[in-house]
């Protein structure tokens, strides 16, 4: 059984929450989780992020219960690409929305497998046992500088241009979506978040809080929000936890026949 928790907070500095998240726990046997972090003035950012989660969720409603991994990957990719086109069109047509865009992380999971599609610097992590792994790669200027050896990972955390994205949803007519899939185990937890969390709370702290004493997933999500607020809360903070829980065997076998790895 896959369980979820979903929390968001405007933070201590911003007046408007431009983050959006949607979680759908029973989508033809799958769990769908989407996090989007909008950008653009005059509240255009929250328009972009709301459009992203709505369009992607809508496009995935028709997914077949026995969809193969390849079909799931293609559906997620097409849904994100459609959201990109529609956001770009709205931004092009209306002057006050010009230049708006959003990050997005889309997770489609059952008890065996996870498909992730993402653009921007919102992140997905996997917590498995005593380890945390960042699954997504930031499409950001500072990440390019780190990869090229021009700045260190530590310097990136405080870089004045750390919010500059190299790829976002809705800012170009076409977009490249990063798509991945993997198997996950009972007890694994996925953490999906906007950079309002990941830029202020270290991976080690994320791991400690997700693996903490609390049994209730919502409590863990709230603790993650609180940690970012205590660290300054200089951006909107959104957290979704997706847990491959151990307390149900129902549906365990129904996707085996269609998996292609």
From TrEMBL:
<dbReference type="Pfam" id="PF13672">
    <property type="entry name" value="PP2C_2"/>
</dbReference>
<protein>
    <submittedName>
        <fullName>Stp1/IreP family PP2C-type Ser/Thr phosphatase</fullName>
    </submittedName>
</protein>
<feature type="domain" description="PPM-type phosphatase">
    <location>
        <begin position="1"/>
        <end position="244"/>
    </location>
</feature>
<dbReference type="InterPro" id="IPR015655">
    <property type="entry name" value="PP2C"/>
</dbReference>
<dbReference type="InterPro" id="IPR036457">
    <property type="entry name" value="PPM-type-like_dom_sf"/>
</dbReference>
<dbReference type="InterPro" id="IPR001932">
    <property type="entry name" value="PPM-type_phosphatase-like_dom"/>
</dbReference>
């Amino acid at each position: 059984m896959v369980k979820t928790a979903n929390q968001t907070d405007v933070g201590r500095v911003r007046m408007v929450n431009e983050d959006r998240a949607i979680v759908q726990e029973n989508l033809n046997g799958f769990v769908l989780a989407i996090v989007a972090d909008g950008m653009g003035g005059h509240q255009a950012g929250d328009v972009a992020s709301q459009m992203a989660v709505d369009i992607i969720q809508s496009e995935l409603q028709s997914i077949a219960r026995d969809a193969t991994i390849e079909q799931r990957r293609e559906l997620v990719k097409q849904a994100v690409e459609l959201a990109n086109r529609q956001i770009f069109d709205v931004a092009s047509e209306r002057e006050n929305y010009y230049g708006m865009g959003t990050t997005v992380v889309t997770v489609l999971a059952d008890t065996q497998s996870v498909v992730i599609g993402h653009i921007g610097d919102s992140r997905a992590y996997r917590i498995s046992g005593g380890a945390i792994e960042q699954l997504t790669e930031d499409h950001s200027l500072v990440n390019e500088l780190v990869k090229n050896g021009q700045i260190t990972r530590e310097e990136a955390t405080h870089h004045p241009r750390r919010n500059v994205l190299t790829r976002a949803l809705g800012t170009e007519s076409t977009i490249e979506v990063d798509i991945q899939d993997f198997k996950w185990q009972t007890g694994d937890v996925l953490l999906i978040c906007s950079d309002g969390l990941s830029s202020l709370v270290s991976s080690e702290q994320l791991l400690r809080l997700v693996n903490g004493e609390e049994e209730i997933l919502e409590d863990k999500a709230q603790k993650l929000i609180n940690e970012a607020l205590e660290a300054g809360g200089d951006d909107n903070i959104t957290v979704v936890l997706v847990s491959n829980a151990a307390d149900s065997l129902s549906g365990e076998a129904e996707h085996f026949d269609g998996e292609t790895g």
